[in-house]
Amino acid sequence: MRSHAQIVVIGGGVVGCSVLYHLTKRGLTDVVLLERDVLTSGSTWHAAGGFHTLNGDPNVAKLQEYTINLYREIEEISGQATGVHLSGGVMLVATRERFDWLKMAHARNRYLGVATELISVKEAKRHFPLLDDKQFIGAMWHPLEGHLDPSGTTQAYAKAARSKGAEIIQKCRVVDTKQRGDGGWDVVTEQGTIRAEHVVNAGGLWARETGRFAGVELPVLCMAHQYLITEEMPEVVQFNQETGKEIVHCIDFDGELYMRQERSGMLVGTYEPNGVPWSPKSAPWDFSSELLPPELDKISDNLERAFKHHPPLAKAGIKNVIHGPFSFAPDGNPLVGPIRGLKNYWVACGVMAGFSQGGGVGLALANWIADGDPGFDIWAMDVARYGSWATMAYTNQKVRENYGRRFRITFPNEELPAARPLRTSPLYERFKSMGACFGVSYGLEQALWFAPKGKKAVEKVTFRRSNAFPHVGDECRTVRTSCGSFEISGYAKYEVTGSEAESWLSATLANRMPEKGRLVLTPMLNRAGRLIGDFTVAKADDERFYIFGSGAAESYHMRYWEGLLPRDGSVQVRPLTSELTGLSIAGPHSRALLQSLTDEDMSNGAMPFMSFREMELGLVPVKIGRLTFTGDLGYEIWCRSDFLLTLHDMLSRAGEPFGLKSFGGRALMSLRLEKNWGTWAREYRPIYGPLEAGLSRFVDLRKNDFIGRDAALREKHEGGKLRLTSFVAETRDVDVIGDEPVYHAGKVVGWVTSGGYAHFAQKSVALGYVPKEIAEEDQGFEIEIIGKRYKAHPQREPLFDPRGERMRG
Ligand SMILES: Cc1cc2nc3c(=O)[nH]c(=O)nc-3n(C[C@H](O)[C@H](O)[C@H](O)COP(=O)(O)OP(=O)(O)OC[C@H]3O[C@@H](n4cnc5c(N)ncnc54)[C@H](O)[C@@H]3O)c2cc1C
Fold this sequence. Notes:
Layout: E1 4-10, H1 14-25, E2 31-34, E3 50-51, H2 58-78, E4 89-93, H3 96-112, E5 117-119, H4 121-127, E6 138-142, E7 146-147, H5 150-163, E8 167-169, E9 174-179, E10 185-189, E11 192-201, H6 207-213, E12 221-230, H7 234-243, E13 249-252, E14 257-262, E15 265-270, E16 277-278, H8 300-309, H9 312-315, E17 318-328, E18 335-338, E19 345-349, H10 354-371, H11 392-404, H12 428-433, E20 436-441, E21 444-450, H13 469-481, E22 483-487, E23 492-497, H14 501-508, E24 519-525, E25 531-541, E26 544-549, H15 554-562, E27 572-575, E28 580-586, H16 590-595, E29 612-617, E30 620-625, E31 634-640, H17 644-655, E32 660-662, H18 665-673, H19 709-718, E33 722-729, E34 741-744, E35 747-758, E36 763-771, H20 772-775, E37 781-785, E38 788-794, H21 805-808
The structure holds flavin-adenine dinucleotide.
């Protein structure tokens, strides 16, 4: 066996083979794939082979489209048939909510360029004759659906990779991976050791066990899943004869079923609500190309529904039951990318839909290894969306929840219950007793809104305005007319120290660093000049800075910074996760409230907008920044977590005469809309440049060189392609959620990134990207919300405090 390779890929399932192929496609040919047994012997061989582009995240949906379009390419290069049948498919719905969901999925496909069509149940029956039309109210035709041969497809990737120089070694289990002093890896196998620069863990069913060799506990879990294949069905034979066509792929959401023709019968698969994990702690290494014994009683309720929704199935004999494991991440999306803290260790695992997603995963990972960046927006699959808080028990509960909800709707205001509470701030119990309704982000419970006395803190799930609407409105009005307090412990915060801290920050972030005692807002750009962060930076001292950013991106940003830190120890970055907590106070009375707690001068002259101070507030040592995301006069007050309850006590007592009330995350999101302010992961993502996102005033092209400067300069000269635009939508009882298409002159021209009801301004607001050529137009825009188009008017200046007098005053 060879002793060296630039890159070793562990695992010869569809994902590992796709990674291998894409590495060779990027010109990285000193690559070897190690397979424990034979190719496909994990979960790949027994897959049903179905594919589609459906995904909650449009960027992942795009990658699924890429995957499907790749099959012809690998067939041509390899000469190996993939058995791909791009038959198209129908998606059936039985409830109004699900129909609304379908309308939104269809609308989103308009800007993704996928030509789905909403069709009647009668039309759906023309493609899928087994359905009972009384059971459904609507359907969607999806042209990019179909099925393929899982083994043939994996072999096609493998052969195509081999033809470009890759090597595949089978019957070669990796038993250890050891990081070497030079940052490379010793990949220890049953046949000897390979020295590699990079390791990719594509271990599928054994990704977690393989990760443990390197000391990583990946948040993945395998679930046992079943589908069955019927005997020949006369209805199928008759349909084939009469139409000359096969019965297409079908997803019956309310039946929780997927189906397609298999020979002259049907393949019927289902996700039962109480799915059972396979080998929850450790997967056995001697499991290979095996199935689990059939357990039809586990899915009997779902099968009953299948027989009711599609009566000919009830009469069909069962020829075969396929019961096998496959792996999931807690949210059902793949885990892709480099592992924080482990140089050159990559993962491509937790891929639950390898035939829809495997190509995109391979492409992203190969780009990332080759260029240091995946090349597009893969936030929804980035392994860094989880931190060390994603324990094995958390993963177990979330994966089971997700599995059981595979075909269920998750409403935009829905907070799923499994594995909660996990992380809580010291204020959690207090907020609970105050009537908080909680959501969760990065594992942390955060108050979304507060129910008034006598009302239950339970939000009814909906695509429209919920029962929380009036309460959130009250919270917004309190902020704008007197004073509100909001817990900011969930923001990410980092301490940056060292003799070179300032120069390092200035080379890493796009804006000029602040003077001592001041704050700046700054984007962070990648080398291509795209947005990979959006922060507030405070200078506390010559060699001590604080960065505040999005809580959900803590691991993502730490991983990036750790890769940039100088080796001489002259700069340290430390995440302050639960160590630093805080409360923000905002509204016209907030200064008077703050002043009532200290002798220090809090006047505008002494503590102007964007200043930062470390001081004592009553009993509590605090750091105070003069800004808030509400866009109002306000402060962010940070303290160590052991002081937080005291800080809250103090503010609550002193705040009474000023009308202080607590507000939650929903009100904050509404208030920032009145300022046209975007937020990380919605408006600011790695597919947009700072000019496009309206952040160019925070990019200082005259300071020292910084990452992304050249690209930002180019964007400035060339003008970029898009513009983030704020709209007021002419709606009465509904608001955008995000991902709706924006029309201009009747054509889809862009998409909504976020929005909602701006309670104080009493307007329905949407933020979204449109081509720069039409961004200045005032007329002709519409936004489609749940299947209906509404007029939308560009809002050139903020609805609240357009000149920033309140914020600065
Ligand atoms: C019943 C069923 C039906 C399914 N239907 C579909 C479907 O219709 N469409 C769809 O897209 N997906 C479907 N799937 C899911 C699909 O099977 C997976 O998404 C896919 O197989 C994941 O591929 P993978 O390469 O990540 O993992 P695997 O196929 O498990 O491959 C991992 C490989 O790594 C090897 N390996 C692991 N550890 C080591 C090590 N230490 N050393 C060397 N080799 C190692 C293993 O032997 C294995 O071959 C289904 C799954 C099941 C169970």
